């Protein structure tokens, strides 16, 4: 999709610090990290949010989650713990309308979230 930031990253047109590349998903570092490890995992194809992707392509949703876990293992936070978050819509402060799973770790993340 034109004018989509994360489509631009998936296409290699916009630079990002890549963590893992899979056939239909991609993991890269968040530009504004909220924890020592803060990775975003996206579908290469454009889907607006978690619900859209889950209904349109469950196989890619499964790959997205596996990529998130593998990125956490690679970063060394899988054992100490990590949080994975989809923000969907205005109240959740979704700012990029291309599905992305946040993977946060490397500190005590607290609960409940804000
Ligand atoms: P959300 O609020 O859930 O839509 O999260 C969007 C995230 O995207 C936010 O944590 C900051 C990150 N972000 C925004 N622009 C860029 C960018 O150009 N590059 C990277 N790597 N991350 C970005």
Features:
binds 2'-deoxyguanosine-5'-monophosphate, 5-stranded antiparallel beta sheet, 3 helices, single chain, 114 residues, alpha+beta, HIT family, subunit A
How would you describe this protein?
- The structure is a single chain.
- This protein has a single domain, classed as HIT family, subunit A, CATH 3.30.428.10.
- The longest helix has 18 residues, at 58-75.
- Strands 1-2-3-5-4 form a five-stranded antiparallel beta sheet, with helices on one face.
- The protein has helices spanning 5-11, 50-56, 58-75, and strands spanning 18-21, 25-29, 37-43, 82-85, 100-105.
- The protein has 114 residues and is an alpha+beta fold.
- The chain contains three helices and five strands; from the N terminus they run H-E-E-E-H-H-E-E.
- The model has no long low-confidence stretch (mean pLDDT 97).
- The site of 2'-deoxyguanosine-5'-monophosphate (DGP) has 13 residues, from strand 2.
């Amino acid at each position: 999709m034109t004018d989509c930031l994360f489509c631009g990253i998936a296409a290699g047109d916009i630079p990002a610090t890549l963590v893992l590349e899979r056939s239909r998903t991609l993991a890269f570092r968040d530009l504004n990290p909220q924890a020592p490890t803060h990775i975003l995992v996206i579908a290469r194809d454009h889907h607006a949010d978690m619900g859209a992707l889950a209904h349109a392509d469950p196989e890619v949703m499964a790959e997205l989650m596996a990529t998130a876990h593998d990125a956490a293992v690679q970063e060394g936070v899988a054992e100490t713990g990590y949080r994975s978050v989809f923000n969907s819509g205005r109240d959740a402060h979704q700012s990029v309308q291309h599905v992305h799973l946040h993977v946060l770790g490397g500190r005590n993340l607290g609960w409940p979230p804000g």
